[in-house]
Design a protein that fits this description.
It is a single chain. This protein is mainly alpha-helical. It contains 5 helices and no strands.
Length: 150
């Protein structure tokens, strides 16, 4: 199937380029927010530093993460429907990873609210480890998209 087939026609490469661009923004936010949480956890709850971290984290979620994730989903679904990807194994594996990353982002939002309330349920080391999730998912997704092993 030609890249320009399907209902997107000549818009296909533009939609694909936009999708990849917003994937990069989304992943940047998914790498940044847990790093902010590591530093936030070290601040004293209720302190000016604590309030500054709360504000920074809220901006990352509202300015970078949420818009980027929404555009990744919209553009990605457009591409998937254009190439009828829902019948392809590689795509379904990628789709499951994107759903997992979306859930991870939701968990980050919940964890940020806990930090804002003064709770510190995880250690800095645990949050550092969780910061590896987007990198692992991104590597797997790139493998699936480029190699298409099944």
């Amino acid at each position: 199937m030609s890249n320009y087939a399907g209902w997107l026609g000549l818009a296909y490469p533009w939609v694909k380029a936009a999708h990849v661009t917003f994937v990069i923004f989304w992943l940047a936010g998914l790498f940044l927010l847990p790093r902010l949480y590591v530093y936030h956890q070290e601040s004293v709850p209720g302190s000016p530093e604590d309030r500054a971290w709360i504000d920074r984290e809220a901006r990352v979620r509202s300015i970078i993460l949420t818009p980027a994730m929404l555009l990744v989903w919209i553009l990605g679904l457009m591409l998937a429907f254009n190439i009828d990807a829902f019948h392809q194994g590689w795509f379904m594996a990628k789709f499951a990873l994107v759903i997992a990353l979306s859930g991870y982002q939701g968990w980050l939002g919940v964890y940020g609210k806990k930090l804002a309330r003064g709770e510190r349920p995880l250690s800095g080391k645990a949050v550092r480890m969780l910061n590896e999730i987007p990198g692992i998912a991104a590597a797997l997704i790139v493998f699936l998209v480029i190699i298409r092993p099944f």
